Amino acid sequence: MSQDLKEKKLEELKQKYLEQAEEEKQAQEMEAKIQSVLKSILTEEAKQRLGNVRLVNKELYTRAFQAIMGLVQKGMIQEKLNEEQLKEILRQLNNRRDINITRK
After folding, report:
1. What is the pLDDT of residue 5?
2. Among the four 7, 22, 56, 98, which has the fewest Cβ within 10 Å?
3. What's the CATH code of the domain at 54?
């Protein structure tokens, strides 16, 4: 009986591992597609800057990617975005008001 439980638990762990591996593979494929799209839209310098943003602030990176894709879909981007244009997009996305409360 104990052997059956061990085998069942082992099978569950194997299944869980396979599911995690599949999710990881899908995430890598998605990231490869994103990088491919960005390569066609951004100059090399802008792509590097966006990569740096990704390392520091994943949420801002995601919002910037979504904003860039929105501009592409609307046809507002005719040529590759340079670093200065990307900086402006990042500034606009990061220009939210932070409320600081100080006690006296």
Report:
1. 87
2. 98
3. 1.10.8.140
